[in-house]
Predict the structure of SSD domain-containing protein.
Amino acid sequence: MPLRKLAHLTLLALGLLTALAVLFVAQLRFNYNFNDFYPAGDPDLDYYMQYSGRFGNDNDYVLLGLEAPAGQTVFEPRFLTKVDSLTRFIQQRRHVTQVSSPTNAVNPVVEGLGVFNVPYLHPQDPSRRAQDSALVYRTPGLVGNLISQDARAATILFQTSPNLSKPPGDSLLTAVRAELQRQGFAENQYHLAGKMVAQSVFVDRLQVELMVFMSLSVVLVTGLLWLTFRTWWGVVLPLVVVLGAIVWGLGLMSACGISIDLMTALLPVMLFVVGMSDTIHIITRYVTELGYGASKKDSLRIALKESGFGSGLSALTTSIGFFTLMTSTIRPIYNFGLFTGIAVLLTFALSFTLLPAMLVLLGKPQLRVPRAEGHSWDGVLGRMFRVVLVRRHWVVAISALVLVLSVASASRIRINSALLDDLSKNDPVKLDFKFFERQFAGVRPFELDLKPAPGRSIYDLAVLRQTEKIEGYLHTTYGLNFVASPVTLIKSVRKALNGGLLAEYRLPDSEAELQRLTRKVKLFRKKPEFRALALPDGSEGRLTGRMPDVGSIRADKLNADLRRYLRASIDSTVLRTRLTGSANLIDKNNENLTLNMITGMSIDIVMVTLIVLLLFRSLRMTLVVLVPNLVPILIVAGVMGAAGVSMKVSTSIIFTIAFGIAVDDTIHFISKLKLVLLEEPSLFRAVRKTYLMAGKAVIVTSLILVGGFSTLIFSSFDGTFYVGLLIGLTLLFGVVAELTLLPILILAFYRHRPKEIRQPVPALGG
C-alpha cells in the first residue's frame, strides 16, 4: 500500500478514536472525596464503616465561628439575636440534620412526667446577662465548645447528611454565606471549617489550576520546541501527538467512571511534559538525517528504526514507574498511577502512528544548510564529551561527595501529615481551621468505640466509671478539648432529675440510683445527641471528641500512649475499647507510605535491571545504568531533608515517578549505543558517537520536562508544589548525571566484545 494512502487511513482511524474519547471527556467531573484517602482494604477501614453506620460519620459537620464586634463579648443581646437568627436559618436548610448553638443550648429539667428545656441564654432579656454568662462558664461542655474561653467568639455547629456531595454542599454554604452577609457579618468576622468546606474549595481550585498549569505548560513547551527545531511543524506535530494522548487518557478515565481529584488532576500536565520525549527523539533524529542530506523517506525510516527500540523501552519503564503507584492503598494515588501509566503507553502508540503519518503527508522540510560533515550540535556535544573525560576524576569525586552529604541529609526526612496538609500555612481555609483550634476545641475528630464485656450494658455503673476514667485521661494527658460519651448522657439525666443543678452533674453513687436514672433515659432517647452516643439496647457506646490537628507524628505517639494506658488501667473484663475514626485512618496511611515507596522503587529498579540485562547481558552494565539514575533521587532526598519537607501522601509519589521518568534518557542512550556497537568496533568511538546522536534529544527533553514540572510550583496546594519542584530538581540533576557520569561509567566498567561488523547505515557524522 502506498505510504500516503496508509497515512490517510491511519489519520482517519485515529480521528474516529479521538472523537469517541472527546465524548467521554465531556462527561468528566471534578471531585474531592475525603473518604477516598482512607487506606483501601484495611481492616480498620471496614471497622470504621460499620461503626459509622451505627453512630454516624465523625466529619459530616460544619463549624461556623462568629466573632463579636470589637470591644464586645458574645453575651451582648444584639450579637446573640443575630446568632439565634442564623441558628434558625441553618436549621431550616435542606441536608442539615442537627444544629448546636449557644442560643439553642438548653439545660433540661425533669418535673413530674415532663421534661422542660431551660435555655442557658436569654437574648431578649438583657437583665439576665450576668446570670446567664456565669451559668455558662460553670456548665461543662459549653466554654471551649460553643463559646470561646475569652467570650469573644461563638460557634454554630451543624451536622449534615452523610457524605454530602459537592453540589448540594456548595448550595448550603452559599446560602449560609448570603445569610451572614444579610445579618451584617463582614468576611473577617466569620470562619467556616469542616470536610464540606475543604471539599468545596479543593474542587474549585482543581478546576482553575488544571487550566493554569496546562496553559503554562503549552506556552513553555511551545517556546522550547521552537528554539529547538525553528519550524512550525516541529512545534505543532509534538503538540498534536501529546494533546491527543491526553484526550485518550482522560477519555479512558471517564469511561471507567473515575473523576478528576487532587491526584488525577496532575495527569494532563504530567503526560504533556513526559509524553514529549518520544516525539522529540523521533523528530530530532529525522531532522539530523535530513541535515546530513538523506532523503525524506530514508530519514523517516532511520528515525523510526533507531528511535523505536529505545522509545518502546523508555515508554515501558516510564509506565512501570506510574504503575508501581498501584501498590498504594490510597485510591486517588492508585487511579493516578494506573491511568497515567496507560496514557504513557498511548502516547508511545501515537508517536509511532500519528506522528509518522503527519510527517509523510507534509512536504520535505527546507533546512537552512544541509551539512555533510555534521550538525551544529555536534561541536558543542563533542567539546562537552571531551571535557567530561578529561575531568573524569573530578566528576567522580564531586559526585561521591554530594552523594554522601545527600544520604546524611536524607536521614532527617520524617513521615508526617495533617488533615489540611495540601494547603499552605497562609491559605484562608487553613487560617479558618486554625481559628477553631485557637479559640475552640479544634477540628481534628477523635473516636473510641466502647463495648461492654458480655453480660454487661453500656449503662452499668462499672462500665460508666471505666469510661469516665478514660475521659479524664483524654482531657488531661491526650489533649482532647471536648469529650462526649454515655457518661455525658447519664450525668445530664441525673442533673435534669435534680432540678438542673450543676452540682448534680456527676455519676450516681450506687447501682440502685443508676437503675432509677436508666429508666428515665427513655425520656431523652429521641434526642439526636443520645442516639449518637449509645445504641438503644445499651450494647455499645461511642466516645467522641475534638482536638487541634497535631500532625501524624504527634498523633501516633499520643495513640501509642493511649493504647498502653488502656491496657494497663482499664479492666477489659468490664469494658473493651477500640480506637477508630477518620483521623485515625488518615494517620494509618503514613504506616504504608514508606512500604509503598520502597515497593514501587524496587519494582522500577528490577524492571530496569532486566531490560539492561536483556540488552547487554552484563551485570556491570546494569550498575552503570542504575547509578546515574539513583544519584539524582538521593540528592533530592537530601534536599528534602535539608529543607525540612516531610514525607506525606502527596510527596510519597515523587521518587517513584522521578526514577521512572529520569531513566528514560538512559534507556534511549544505551539502546542507541547497542545499535552503534553493531557498526563500531571501538567502545570509545561508539560511546562518543552515541553521545553526539542522543545528546541533543536528552538535553531538549530534559529541559521540557524540568520546565513542564516547574509550572506546578505555582499551585496553592503544597503537595502539588513539591511534586513540581522536587521532580523538576530530580530531572535536572538527572540530565547532568546522564551527560557526565554515564559515559565515564560505561567506558570504565563495560567490557565490549566486538562482533563482526555489519554493513553500516548511512553516515551520521561525528
In short: The mean pLDDT is 84. The beta strands are 61-67, 96-100, 106-111, 114-119, 153-160, 190-193, 444-452, 482-484, 541-547, 575-580. The chain is about 60% helix and 10% strand. Residues 702 and 735 are 6 Å apart (CA to CA).
